[in-house]
Amino acid sequence: MPGLDVVLAPDRDAVAAELAAGAEVLVTSYWRDDFLTQNLRWVAGNGAGTEQYPLEQFRRNGIELTTAHGVHAACVAEHAFGLLLGVTRAIGLAGRNAVTHSWAPTTTDELGGKKMGIIGLGRVGEEVARRAIAWDMEVAGLKRTPARYEGCVSVVRGPDALHELCRWADVLMITAPATDETRGLIGTEELALLGAGWLVNVGRGPLVDSDALLVALRDGALRGAGIDVTDPEPLPQDSPLWDRPDLVITPHIAGDGPNFAPRWARIFERNLHAYAGGGNWQNRFEHVGPGADA
Q: 72 an active-site residue?
């Protein structure tokens, strides 16, 4: 685009300096308070979440925010099943045994015929649901606005059905974003209702109470869990969660894949034209309430 100057800042201090010098557009997945300047007009997030941004200040200052919502969907869904198989098929445990050269067969389970409850039927949740149905699983889900849902899941309820979903499910799959409403969503009571099931979290770490998860694995009926996100993040080296053989942990990599860059670039190109007054925005955050619908 004519007249566009692109600066690749080497570190976050350099980002702040460029913004202070007059940069109008910021491509980022992280945020610092000194990034908020009078000249900033558009934040092009290359992640799906919005919880890191000062959304009210963006609204007051007229700053546009776009995200990579949906770009990661297929990749995250595949990763979610990798985590699930890691615990249901004891692949995570076998990996631990391999470190000590231990040949230790164990009884595993299968997913066909199991019931999966999905918290957050956005784009990632929909991709997970399609795969689960193809694997002969029964699927139900929660969405903040179930009346607006159009997808492959036949049973979709609102947030008030959380406990009913936990009680029904064999697998509880979390794909929802972090908002004021979802923080601490899964705690002691919800894990007790899930009982002898499995938990997978590819949404955001703060949705699950880490202490409650540890207790449910150690002292409760929970058979296993797979998490790509933690609270806090990164997970501290001394966290007892690392030592659980019934827990598979990956370092927030579910959305990383070779197709992310070209998919996100197409969104950015379209939004660049919108910013210049030449079209409609894609994945534009609407400053009317909590983040994107789950």
A: no
Mean pLDDT for 61-65 is 97
Assigned domain for 145 exists: yes
Q: Contact at 8 Å (CB) between 231 and 258?
A: no
Buried b (16+ CB within 10 A) or exposed e, 115-132: bbbbbbbbbbbbbbbbbb
- In terms of Cα–Cα distance, which of 254, 249, 30 is closest to 124? 254
Q: Are 144 and 243 found together in one domain?
A: yes
**Does 65 share its domain with 140?**
no
218 is catalytic: no
Show the CA angle centred on residue 87, arms to residues 234 and 258, nearest 5°. Answer: 60
- Can you give the CATH number for the domain in which 39 is found? 3.40.50.720
User: Which residues have C-beta within 8 Å of that of residue 206, sequence separation ≥ 6?
Assistant: 178, 182, 183, 184, 231
What pLDDT is stored for residue 292 in this prediction? 38
> Residue 123 to residues 90, 119, 282: CA-CA distances in angstroms?
28, 12, 14
Give the pLDDT confidence of 206-239 residue by residue, as tens digits.
Answer: 999 999 999 999 999 999 999 999 999 999 999 9
Catalytic residue among 79, 123, 204, 223: 204
Q: Residue 197, SS3?
A: coil
226 and 241, same domain (yes or no): yes
**Reported pTM:** 0.87
Would you call 252 a catalytic residue per the annotation? Answer: yes
Look up residue 62 and give its DSSP letter.
Answer: T
Dihedral sign from CA coordinates of 92, 93, 95, 96: positive
Print the domain residue range for 48: 12-70+257-275
The reply to whether 289 falls in a domain is no
> Which entry of 233, 266, 269, 286 is annotated as an active-site residue?
233
Catalytic residue, candidates 69, 72, 123, 252: 252
- How much is the pLDDT for 1? 60
Q: Please tell me the predicted confidence (pLDDT) of residue 48.
A: 86
